[in-house]
Amino acid sequence: MKKLHTARFNRAGLLVSVPAVLLASAIGNNAMAQDATDEANEGALEEVIVTATKRVENIQDIPISITALNQSQIEQMSAGVPDIRFMNARVGNLTIESSFGRVFPRFYIRGYGNTDFDLNASQPVSYVVDEVVQENPILKGFPVFDVERIEVLRGPQGSLFGRNTPAGIVKLDSVKPVDVPDGYFRASYGTYNAARMEGAFGTGFGNGWSTRFSLLYMHQDDWVDNGYTGEKDAYSGFDEWAARLQLAYDNGGDFRALFNVHYRDLDGSAILFRANIIEPGSNGLNEEYYDRDTVYFDGQNTQELTQWGGFAKLEWDIAGLTLTSITGYENVELFSRGDIDGGFGGCFVVDECGPGFIPFDAETADGMPDHRQWTQEFRLTSHNDGGFNWIAGFFYFNEKFTIDTINYSTLFGGDVNGLVEQQQKTKAYAFFGSGTYDINEQWRLGAGIRYSHDEKDYWAERYLSPLSFLDVPPLGPIYADPDDDKVTWDVTANYFQNDDINWYARIATGFRAPSIQGRLLFGDTVSVAESETSTSYEGGVKMLMAGGKVRVNFNLFTYKVDDAQLTAVGGEANFNQVINADKVKGKGFELDLQAQLTPNLLISYSMGYTDTEIRDDNLAVAGCGAPCTVTDPPGDVAGSYLINGNPLPQAPKITSNLIVDWSKQLASGAIYFQGDWVYRSKINFVLYEAKEYRGKSLSEIGLRVGYRFGEGNHDLSVFGRNISDRERNIYTIDFNNLTGIINEPRTWGVEYAWRY
User: Fold this and answer.
1) What domain range is 507 assigned to?
2) 413-423 as b/e, with b when 16 or more CB fall inside 10 Å?
């Protein structure tokens, strides 16, 4: 075992050593050969300004592990027509996956997330857009466009951001209106007739008023054949629109305002489940049944979504303080239907079935016909020049939605043979405060505290069971009304060794409110998980070197989650429930660096290492219904397995991303090259361990080659994603057949961009 652990550590060390060599080269070639005083700012990296503490601050001064992506990096990573999952592993210790496709992304920070696929699933990673939390997972799929910055805050953020942030936050800030004409237009075309057009226009119109309108359209043709029906190009296409309108007021006085409305419409194919694509006894692809370009469906596969919302942010400067009010509203409607068994027929019912063994048909739909969320935050912020600074506020959250879960009898005309309705109302409020005190020029101490109250009212009713032919009756309504109060806090310390080096330490707590799972199609119980609480310890250093040409941020962390909420999915009964484990522990590190190696060459590297472990001696979950090879010890109940000591699902030990940005003057413009490489190590798909449900490591390469001209306002480029065409199973359903989901194929495209 020691040898195995050493090998794993060495792999992590290798990934660290590559940028370390670049760093040493940068320091040796740039720092030591120059006078730091005379040339400190020549070719230096730009400051990274973030709002992670609800203030505008330099990322180097904040005692939190943060990675920020700027517009250029976002545009490189999101070339083509991707969804939010383009960020998967693009930041150290951040992963994103989905079993719904372009909707319902699931976020994980430091291996800590939630694999639950029900539409009321709560996640320990919060998603915040323009200071408004997007609570329901469906809201988190809004397309990324005209975005100024993405910030990833690792570790509990309970003091300032509250409930459901014990793992961290992904925070987006859109480009805001300015009082001069400003905007851009981008258009691209590529593989599978993938087309993207987006643009923004903003201007001021006097007396402190300005506006900005942003629009996005993405399209992709169907390109996956249905081998069962013989239909060519049947699946994987979509049409998607999104828009954002902002109106701002700032005349230089004591009052400022920002108003925002946004809209999204999606119509296309749901994600494709592929039956028996995993080789029994291994985690490789089964070449007998797997073909990336073909599936074998006898059911439907469609997805429709409409989302809109808005917010009003009002600010008043009063006696050296700023009073901020943010009122947000979100609404979404979704219908997603898929052939979940990934094949055709049902071998227990009809003679014809495949590919491979399909015991019985499984075609289901999840709908959210009614959803609304509104939030209100008031906060008061001080602006003292040194000494003591503070933020205090109040937050209110109100959400209500309906979920329809539908089962279809694929073998008998596609009629509805199962129907469950769930309704959930959530109310939450919190009081919070946070402050920092500068003891002297080198030492700064900080602390924050938050009191949160969360309550849910829930009911579920099964109107029709898919097993009614076995005399399984309707059920319910079943009620649940969990509530809880928690106090979360954090304590931080900064030691500014000099203007370029900041040592810090942080202890923080977070909590996730009680969660409910009521997927009653094939089960008769509603499961309720108690609140989980997390405590994180973190220490690190943030450095600028080589006259500001090199930025290095490094930290170590360890965390513990008590009463950890886990999701047990699948099994032979295809039943989903939330459970509590005694503890989950994690430890690791993060490294972010940027190096301006030459005036024409910028290197950016982000890497994370996380080791997670479930600790509960007696916790057992149902195993797979398919003939898989479980390696965990059996539990007391037949078909169950003990998961003590297992890693969290979807928690790779290593995530790593390298971006190379090179440019050179050519004629009246500049030719440039941008390349990015992303890697994540192997993962476990479910709570128990089985040979088939262990995802292989995945690495992908993207590139862009282009030419900027017209004083840099015009840009023509060619781009590629996953250019090595790596094929991997990235998600598994542990239910009766070895069904999986495949990563996106290699794509190419051309793009024109104009900025003014």
Assistant:
1) 2-755
2) eeeebbbbbbb
